Structure formats: structure tokens, C-alpha cells
Amino acid sequence: MSDKLKDVINKQNEQQNQDESLTQLDDVVQLVGFIIGDEEYAVPILSIQEIIKPFTWTRVPQVPGYVKGVFNMRGAVIPLIDLRLKFGLTEQKHTDETRFIVMKHGDEVAGFVIDRLTMALRIKKANIGPAPDTINADDSLIDGVGKEKDRIITILKPDRLLQRDF
Amino acid sequence: MDEFQEILQDFLVESFELVEKLDEDLVELESNPEDLELLNGIFRVAHTVKGASSFLNMDVLTHLTHHMENILNKARHGELIITPDVMDVILESIDLMKQLLETIRDTSSDAGVDVSECVARLDKIDGGDGNVETPVVEAPAEPVQEEAPVEETPAEDEPDYENMSDEDVEAEIARLLEQRQAEDRAKREAKIAAGESVPEAPPSPDEVSEEKKDEKPSAPPPPPPPPPKPSKREKPKAKIEDESKAAPAKKAPVVEQTIRVDVKRLDHLMNLIGELVLAKNRLIKINDDVEERYEGEEFLEELNQVVSIVSLVTTDLQIAVMKTRMLPVGKVFNKFPRMIRDLTRELHKKIELEISGEDTELDKSIVEEIGDPLVHIIRNSCDHGVEDPETRIAAGKEETGTIKLKAYNEGNQIVIQIDDDGKGLDVEMLKDKCLDKGLITEKEADQMSDKEAFALIFRPGFSTAAQVTNVSGRGVGMDVVKTNIEKLNGIIDIDSELGIGTSIKLKIPLTLAIIQALLVGVQEEAYAIPLASVMETVRISTDEIYTVEGRSVMRLRDEVLSLVHIGDIFEVERIIDGGEHAYVVVLGLGAQKLGLIVDTLVGQEEIVIKSLGEYLKGIEGIAGATIRGDGGVTLIVDVVALMDMAKNVKSSVNQSAANSSDGVIKEKTQASDYTVMIVDDSKTDRTIMRKSLEPLGITLVEASDGQEALNTLKQSEHNFDAMLIDIEMPRMDGYTLATEIKKYNRYKTLPLIAVTSRTSKSDRMRGVESGMVEYITKPYSADYLSSVVQRNVNFKSEFLS
């Protein structure tokens, strides 16, 4: 019993210490992770305006397939982009876990359909590597690749996601 | 008089804004002297201030800015390097400019600030000899001299200003100002003592400056060609005297005219009101429902009253806010007659200006933005367009040239058109000039169409003038035009014929407005068409649609109207609609007409235009979006673009319908190509059906109720060949589901098979009414179910193993 308690307390302390060490360091990036297809991606937490459950949208003609249309978010008309289609995957039926992430960069706002959220992440900058060399850095949506324990998380650039590319 | 004041106010507000920006830019420029963009920007400020001040007869300011412009122009062309020394002088000149603007704000004239020293230094940099004419020396116009004394108050003695040194003039001005202010103060105090209402603020330590501000709006302008002579200062003052005596109450509202509100705030207000309008629409609908249900109840009366008050106030509020944003374009046009007069004198030409459509209302933000571009276009027309009287006579034209300025609404756009009957644009000459300046390559020049060549005049650095004059020739004005119009998402259209004249059209979209729209439906989508472009709607039988050269047309009274289906334009997936009738919305735009076929007419509604944002802007055929009462988004049709797009829609209305239905029916090559959906809330029943059908090898999809089935259909991952539907289900029963499915043209022919324990005749009848083709009662044998399904999906026997 007391061993277990000790364990728990130790763990908590550890956690705290870790948290402290993280907060003490300025070079920590706060991200929100999500899944598209089989891979985990993340965007900076500050670029996210809100995360909402899916609701109806209106199709817009003459746009690429990944632009699903527009939807009404409290009076603002916002484009909706399906990241599955944007990343070349097939369209999937929305599930209970599907979410719209509304991202903002400057005056640009758009909603992105993702398969499911994972968690808010704090990753040390030291643990973020550059995008693979095979990708042209300027054109890429990828800001870097974060390593967290045994996971590899692709960090996306919100400004590029919000840039019209058609 | 008031007109001039209004212009002056605008000028001041604008100039202060520009100068403020200038400070930032200059500081940046010092650390970044190579930045051409920045230099261009600074140069444009000087250019714009010069242009405006010259026509307001602020000669000292014009004089100063002209020299600034010269230097900046050199820097811009790389002929001058901005050293800190040069920067010092430029900054000094900007300080002087600010000082001048403040003087103008306080006294309505720009005398009293000595710029000669600064101008001399500017000239030195410019490579001039430093021999600078100060405007005081320049002072040419005699008429004013004769005029001025008449208007001066007799009490004042008139010193010999001509022979005074600058310092003396300065002192004299200060003295006169003091005297005048003292008099004003005394008068005002006397009025207060007499109990007269005085609109000004109560006496305070700031009183002097306060008074000065109050006087400013009613101060009369200097006479047309007044030199910047000190004597002019008395004139406005004298008039103020008269006016303040005659109508002191008139001043206050004039001051309030210039309240400027951030457009963003108005936008926000407008958005809120848009929401309110939508909420009001819903409230009215709910009121109707309640009325129906609780007919005769007492509280209804009260509810009715509240609803009608809310809707009335909302409508008024909406109109009021709209009005705060809308201004007649005349506000901008008003300043041009004067400008033309001054220009004609300067250029020794004879030009008449005809203005029409000045009542056309424009959003305030647009009115503010088009002022500058129009000044530049008109100056350009005067300088480069209209020829000298001699040339005109030689060319067989009337001696007096005409510039027509008109504004009108066209669909969703406002068009401002500037026509001149001058020499027109010479395409070859334009190309040559651009080649000389290295703005285009020879290859580009060869491939250029006339329209593209006309557009060359908007390139920065382009000028056809051989000499830089006060009016034009620096190649910056038209660049301003393009930048400003593009900022408004507007289009510039130039037409020109050599020797006949040039016509420039500025097409500016409505950025923000509440409009009346006709809502139409196509399949399950809805679109809003601005009612202004709708001429009529007609219901025709499909027999009345003829095909001429692969295009659909119909006869509308004595006209032949070409038809296009809205679904073809907006890529709506369309399956043949068995209906014998079609609704045609007749769109009219100028002389152009087009019949737009839609599936349904929803109705007329007041809609708030919202932009689709940067990400989706510029989609052909879509002018924007609006939010409907139910919270959904409906796209607004851009009628102008739609007319263009209709020309490129090749397939005729009937053909395309046939094609798209072909696409849906795919050749079945194996048993699993057949897909059947099983809809039942009981897991056991679903399993039984699955077991019965599995031996066929067909693909089976399950849904546990009507709602889920409908969603699965909408997602359309499969092309279903048949559906087995239970009747008793939660959320949505089988009948409702069948009715809903039949609403989709795409599923009109999908066989729906009821599988139910309900056996009564009336149940069967309901099934047929809702579109079911078969009715299987539970319990059934596996073979029977299998055979019914095979029959309905046209199962090929060779797939049976």
C-alpha cells in the first residue's frame, strides 16, 4: 500500500519536475496533435482559433476537391478544407471523432477537417528536426518533424495551410 | 463655399494620414536606402499632396512638395543616393510640410511659413543652383490685390506688404492674428452676456485654439488664382466675422460632418445587424407557428405586438446603418469641375466636363478610395487625352474637348466611366515607350493585344509625357489608380480609338450591402441571385426548349432566349429530372439577356452579402455568400460572370442531363459490384437479411435507422442498386426515409423494398405512395428475399455460383 502511494507520489513529483523543467525552458513549442489517415500531425496551439464538431457546409463550385465548401461560424463565412483529400488520401465518412480545426493566420481563417484529435503537446525545440531534405523547404507544408518518446509528429505550417494554392 | 470647405477637410484629413505614414516609411528608408518600393511609396505621398494642394491653391505647399518630389524622383531612379545629409533635408522638408498643413488647418491658407530656405537646400541636392523663387516673390496675380482691400474690414490699416521683409510679414501676421482673435473673443463674450446661444465650447484655457478650429469649416476659400500673399489672410478672417455674426448656430453641424469612424467598426456593426435581421426573420416565423397552434389565446396579441415592434426597429436600424455607410458619388465628383477649370488654364486647352449619375450611392469606404484614382485619371485625360484647340480644329474636331464622368449601377457592380474625346491611345507608341524604358521586352511587345497594350499605362514609371510638368509626367499617377482600384477588388477596363477618344471604366464591386435576392434551388443546393438582375421568372414545359446549334433556347414572347442550366455552371451533379416543367429565371444585364434554368424557385429574401475571404476569392460566377435564417450558407451568383460563363457551356440542357445519368450506371462485372443497403433497427433482422443475401456475393451495407441510411446515401461512397427498408424505426421511419430518398434526383429510380411485419392494406398503400416498389412481409423465406432482390437489381444470372 505504502509502496504504491510512494510510487504515485514519486511519479507526480517526476511529472512536476518535468513540467517545471519544460516551463523553465523558453524553447518549448506548444502544439495540438491530430491524426489524418495513419499519421500524426501537429500545428502550433496559438494558430488555432477553435476546434468544433462537424456540421453542415455549403459546396462551392470550381474549386479543387479538398475544398469542401464554406460554413457559417457565428456569422462569418469560412472555407472548409479536408486535409485527408489535401494529403492525397481518400475521403472518409465523418465519425464521432471527426473535428473541424479552425486556424487563423493574420486575417486568414479556415476550417480543416481532421480524423481525430490526439492531445496538446509540449515539445522541446531541440527535439524538432527539419523537414526531410527531399522536400523543398519553401513550398512545403511541413515546418519540421517533432520527436516525442517513440512517436514522430509532423508539424505543419499554418500560414502555408491557409494559403490558397489553386 | 461649403463645397470648398468639404474638399479642404478631406484634403487635410488625408494629408495628415499620409504624412503620418511617411514618417514611419522615412525612418525605415534610412536604414534601407535601396528599397525601391518604399521610395515609390514616399514619392507617391509627395505627389498626391502636391496634386491636391495645387488645386486648392496652397501655393507654398505645392512649391515645397514639388521640390521634394524632384529629389525623391531622382532617388527613385537611382540618380541620387540617400545619404544622411540628404535625409536631413528631406526630413526637414517633411516637418515643414506638417507645419504647413497645421497652418492650413488653423487658418485655411498656407501663408506664414517660410519654406524658401528648405527649398533652396532641396534644390542644391537636386543639382539646382540654389537660386530659389520663393512663392512670396512669385506672387503674380494682380486681380486679388484689387479684390482684397474691398473685403478687408475698414478698421484695418493696410501696410505695404510688398515691400516688407519676411520677418516683418511674419510679425505683421502675428499682430493681425492676435488682433482678430481678441476681437472674436470679445464678440463671443458679448454674445454670451446677451444670452445668445453660442454653439462653441465654453471658455477654457484652450479657447483660442478651440475658436480657431471652429472657424475653420466656415472659412471661405481664397479666390481662384490667389497668390500666397499675406494680404489674403485677412480676407477669410473678414468673412468669418460676417458669418459668425450672421449664423453662429450653423457652425456646429458643419464640424460634426467630419467624424471619421474606422471602417472596421462599421463593418462590425453591419455584421451584427445582419445577424439581427436573420434573427428577426426567424422570430417572425416562430410567431406564425405559435399563432397557428394557440389560436385565440390572449397572450398572442402581446406577442404579436412585440414581434412587430422588433421587426420594425430592426428594419429602421438596418436602414440607418446602411445610410451611414452610403454616400452619393457626387461627393467625389464635386471637386472635379474646379480641377478641370484650373487645369485648362494651366495647359491652355479648352475642356468641358460633363457629370452624370452623381446620385449613385456608394459605400463610404469606396467613395474614399476612388477619389485619388479619379483625380489621376482626369488629370491624365486633360494632359494626354484632349489635344490643344489648334490640333483639335486641324483634326476636324470641335475646339472644346469634352470629358464625361458618369457613375451607374451594373449588376453587382458600380461602374465609374471616364470618357474623353481626345486623341486616344496609340498602341505602337505605348509599346515603344515601354521598350525604351525597359518595362517590357520586345517579345512581349509583339505578342501584346491592344487591350494589354492599353494596360501598359498603369505600369509604374511609365509616362508618355516628354517633359515633367506640374500636372503629370512622372509616371506615378496611373500606378496609384491601379493600386487603389485593385485594393477594392475592382476592374479597370480601357477602350480607346486613335483620334476618337479614350474610355476608362472602373468597375467596383459592392463590398458590403444588404440586397434583395431571389433564392433558387438546384438539386439540394440553393443559390441567391440579386433581384436587380432578375427581369422575370417563367415556368415552361420541357417541350418548349429547342436546340439550336447545340445550344438550348426558348421563345419568350417575340424573342429567342438562350438557356443554360444553373447546374452546368456550378458543376452540380444532376440526374435527369423527370419533371415536365422547368423554371426559367430571365436575367438581364444591360442589353444582354439569359435564361437560367433552375429546379425550384425558393422565394425572395433580404440577404447580407459576405465575402468568401481571401482563400476563396475570385471564384468565377460567385459574388459572395450569405447566411440564411437556418444558419446555412448560400452562395450569391455573380450575374456578370455568369453571363460570360454561359457562353462557354457547350452542352445543351437536355444533353447534359442524359450524359450525367449515364455516368452513374456502371457496367457490372462481378457479383460484388452490386450493392444493397439494409436498413433495420433490429440487429437480428439485419443479420437474417444479410444471411439470406450473402450467398449471392453482393456487397451489403447496413444502417440502423432512416437517418443513418440517408447520411450514408449522401456520402455516396457506394452506388446502391437497391435498399431493403424496415418501416418501424426510431428517428426516421421507413415511409419518411423513402420520401426523403425520392427527393434526390439521383435516387429517383433506386428500387426501395419494404421489409416489414405490417401487413394491412393501408400500410401497403402508404408504402407505394412513398415510393416503395416491393413489399415483403415478415416472416419471409431466404430464397424469396434473395429472388426479390435479384429481380430488382437486374442481377446477372452468370454471377450465380
Description:
The complex is a heterodimer of chains A (166) and B (801). Chain A is of the alpha+beta class. Chain A has a single domain, classed as OB fold (Dihydrolipoamide Acetyltransferase, E2P), CATH 2.40.50. Chain A has helices at residues 2-24, 83-86, 158-161, and strands at residues 28-36, 39-44, 48-52, 67-73, 76-82, 99-105, 108-114, 116-124, 128-129, 142-148, 151-156. In chain A, the strands form two sheets. In chain A, strands 8-1-2-11-10-9 form a six-stranded mixed beta sheet. Chain A has a five-stranded mixed beta sheet with strand order 3-6-7-5-4. In chain A, a hairpin with a 2-residue loop joins strand 4 (67-73) and strand 5. The mean pLDDT of chain A is 83. Chain B is of the alpha/beta class and 801 residues long. Chain B folds into six domains: 1-138, Four Helix Bundle (Hemerythrin (Met), subunit A) (Up-down Bundle), CATH 1.20.120.160; 142-257, no CATH class; 263-326, Helix Hairpins (Orthogonal Bundle), CATH 1.10.287; 329-509, Histidine kinase-like ATPase, C-terminal domain (Heat Shock Protein 90); 514-663, Beta Barrel (OB fold (Dihydrolipoamide Acetyltransferase, E2P)); 665-799, Rossmann fold, CATH 3.40.50.2300. In chain B, 48% of the residues lie in helices and 18% in strands. Chain B has 30 helices and 23 strands. In chain B, the strands form five sheets. A six-stranded mixed beta sheet of chain B has the order 10-14-15-13-12-11. Chain B has a five-stranded mixed beta sheet with strand order 2-4-5-7-6, covered by helices on one side. In chain B, helix 4 packs antiparallel against helix 5 (116-126). Chain B starts with a helix and ends in a 9-residue tail after the last helix. Chain A binds chain B through residues 56-63, 67, 69-72, 75-79, 91, 93, 107-110, 162, 164, and chain B through 271, 274-275, 525, 569-572, 610-616, 619-622, 625, 627, 631-635, 712, 715, 717.
